[in-house]
Design goal:
The chain is of the alpha+beta class and 102 residues long. It has 2 helices and 6 strands; from the N terminus they run ββββαββα. Strands 1-2-3-4-6-5 form a 6-stranded antiparallel sheet, with helices on one face. β1 and β2 form a beta hairpin. The radius of gyration is 13 Å and the shape is globular.
C-alpha cells in the first residue's frame, strides 16, 4: 500500500473506496475529480507518459498496461521489480500529469 502522506510533491487529493470482484480498491483523485492513482492492494495503477510507460513495460515484467487508464497509464505489481523510490516517483508524476489535464 502506497503512503501518499510521505511522498513529497503530492498536494491535496480525495479518496474513493470501491469494491471490484470482491476486492477493495482505493481511487485517489485530484481536487478536480480526476483519478491519478488506483490502489488495488497488490498492484497500483498510475497515469504515465506513453514513452515512459512503453519503456517500463519492456524493461520490467511486473509493469503492465493499466486496466483503469488504458494506454495512458501503467499497472505495477507493488512487490515487483521497482524500488519504493521509483514507485513514489511514478505516483508523483501521475499526480502532476493529472493536475495538468483539463
Amino acid at each position: 500500500m502506497i503512503e501518499l502522506g510521505k511522498i513529497s510533491g503530492i498536494g491535496e487529493y480525495e479518496t474513493e473506496n470501491r469494491t471490484e470482484n470482491q476486492k477493495m480498491q482505493v481511487i485517489y483523485r485530484t481536487p478536480g475529480g480526476k483519478a491519478f492513482l488506483v490502489d488495488r492492494g497488490n498492484t497500483i495503477e498510475v497515469r504515465s507518459e506513453r514513452n515512459l510507460a512503453g519503456l517500463l513495460r519492456e524493461k520490467y515484467e511486473s509493469v503492465m498496461e493499466s486496466r483503469y487508464f488504458g494506454k495512458g497509464g501503467i499497472e505495477v505489481v507493488v512487490s515487483g521489480q521497482l524500488s519504493e523510490d521509483e514507485m513514489e516517483d511514478l505516483v508523483r508524476l501521475s499526480y502532476n500529469l493529472t493536475k495538468e489535464l483539463r
